Predict the 3D structure of the following.
Amino acid sequence: MNAWSDPGEFEAVARTTNVVNLDALIKRADLAEIGEASDDIPTLYINGLEPKGLLYPALRKPDFQRETAVWSPEQVSDLIATFLRRELIPAVILWRSGKHVFVVDGAHRLSALIAWVHNDYGDGTISQDFFGSVLPEDQVKAARRTRDFVDGTIGSYLEHRDAIERPDRARPEVLERAQRFGWQNIEVQWIRGADHAKAEKSFFRINQGGTKIEPTEQRILLARTSATALASRAILRGGSGHNYWDKFSAATQRRIEELGREIFALMFNPNIEQPIRTLDLPMAGQGYGPHALPFVFDLVNIANKVQVADSSNKRVKEEDGFIDDLDGSETVKYLTEVRRLLWRFCSNNPSSLGLHPVLYFYSGSGVFQPAALLSFVVLMKEWETADYRNFVEVRSQFEEFLLANRNITEAIRKLGTGNRSRPRIIGLYRIIINQLREGKTSAEVANALRETKDYGFLIDASDEAPPMLALDGGSFSRETKGAAYIAEALPHAQKCPSCGGLMHRNGMQVGHRRHRRDGGSGRQDNAMMQHPFCNSTVHN
């Protein structure tokens, strides 16, 4: 079975960031949109996918279609090679609505071939027009890997076209394949006699086959007009990509896109490079790839107290408690609240505590832990101004505790994810903060927790942490290199002179040692780096 058609392989690829974003290559449209009728295209040929080909200008995906972004460079290359070898590729399923031809099944297969024809693997002209000229770094890297892989093993589409015109200069294998272009077709099945409602049902039924839609994504597709779905989409694509909110006013659309871009930057900048050699990691791990969707979905719902099952729930129902957003106001409201909370975490906003992501939200080996961040979201939703001040008073001791029990963030995974386990994680944080405020040392707090049934196993988690991959020949794995760097560098990170907490590049600003209203000068010797919250409150 080919890598691009094996469900297990699909799921493994989807968990990585080594995925090729082909989402721009087939435009989206409303299934219910009515247009002028035209005849079916009985057979599809590769040259029909060229910019002015018979098929390509008419191709559309349903406007609720999930992103075409789960295949690896190898899978894309293998699909193209399989087509050129004239081996079996499952037929694509199409449905015509007026002048549009909707891809009900086979969007990835067609997109891989379109990518080859247009030389656009997520970084070409079509993708730049769709996503904006500034593309995510991971997307560009995946595109380059794919192009290098395809050109090196198969040859570009342009090389095959040129082989027809200049056969004397062509590689023999390329010329042999190019000579079949005129009659080598793509198998097609048509859905006939169906309205848009039946076509939509066909889409969901077919896409629960070999490569299933991930449950969270299916819930978003079913609730695609809700504020949760729209806000999640806006964040994941940084306000770019398909305009799911195009039925709102122009001003509302701009606001959604602005907030989406800002929140994406807050969460996912700077980009992660492996192996880890810096403490400048983003607040929420990698923002590229399908793995980010469940986390963002939960974040939006928790921040806005939407009473629905979280992403750990794998059951999908037609009626899931989401409410349609008719004018975009709820989506803007949801995004604004998410931004307000993230400002609190690590930003240059005056409210920012500047929490160091590596200490609070990553495991000792540099793996982002969504449960840790989401638990803090719940905790901070409950805090008043006095609670923030109380936390700052013991912040240095709290971080001393986390540093001394470095595996506690990773061990939180043992509590599981979701609504049922989150209260226990929040309870742990409350206990630590309260006991530190009572005057206990971090060692005394650890000893007290060690005696409890609920949290003792977290404190002693260092002996039970999952082993990292050991490579043959004594070489260090990427994870081991990252863990070694973090263990060495984190205790020596720059600290805020006001509260003693660690500082991150995204959550610090220049403050006055002696405040301006007390006669402090603007000279360098009166300047110091602080957490924004400390800078805005230390003299108040």
Q: What stands out?
A: Strands lie at 28-29, 44-45, 59-62, 92-97, 100-105, 185-186, 188-190, 509-512, 527-530. Residues 53 and 168 are 27 Å apart (CA to CA).
